[in-house]
Write a structure and sequence with these properties.
Structural class: alpha/beta
Strand order of the largest sheet: 2-1-4-3-5
Number of helices: 5
Number of strands: 5
Largest sheet: 5 strands, parallel
Length: 156
């Protein structure tokens, strides 16, 4: 199954881009994996309009049959082992479908995009910067693959 990570907004910190790219490269050892970045233009717009524009850009990257998982502060929380178990289930869906994770902008997602999603997950009850979520999630996704494979990255 191909996996896509859609990122809303840009990361202006070179160090974070480098770390995210490292984990993306590691994930590619386990599955076809790509990243799409949605640029935002927020000057003078309401939060609702920003969300609508971001949703339109995101929906332009989606295909029929995509299995969509939103990263949202109100989503379900998992331990690393629980995430690995869920990932293993998601990867068993019929071939030809993409597994699409979406990290939204600072104002979240539209109701329409939430309705298209199969699930919403949260990394924590704490709030992380938009840029840090990219790093934390790609590391956790890599960790989940190592757990599935029984590799020695994760320790409990």
């Amino acid at each position: 199954m191909n996996t896509l990570l859609i990122l809303t907004g840009e990361t202006d910190r070179k160090e974070l881009r480098t770390l995210v790219a490292d984990y993306v490269g590691r994930i590619k050892h386990y599955t076809p994996f790509s990243v799409a970045e949605i640029k935002t233009h927020n000057e003078g717009l309401s939060q609702a309009e920003i969300c609508r524009r971001e949703a339109k850009e995101i929906e332009g990257r989606l295909k029929d049959g995509d299995y969509i998982i939103l990263l949202d502060e109100h989503g379900k929380e998992f331990t690393s082992r629980e995430l690995a178990a869920e990932l293993q289930k998601w990867l068993l869906y019929p071939r030809g479908r993409r597994l699409v994770f979406i990290i939204g902008g600072p104002y979240g997602f539209t109701d329409e995009l939430k309705q298209k999603a199969a699930m919403q997950i949260s990394l924590s009850r704490m709030t992380f910067s938009h840029q840090m979520v990219r790093l934390i999630f790609t590391e956790q996704l890599y960790r989940a693959f190592t757990i599935i494979r029984g590799e020695h990255y994760h320790h409990e």
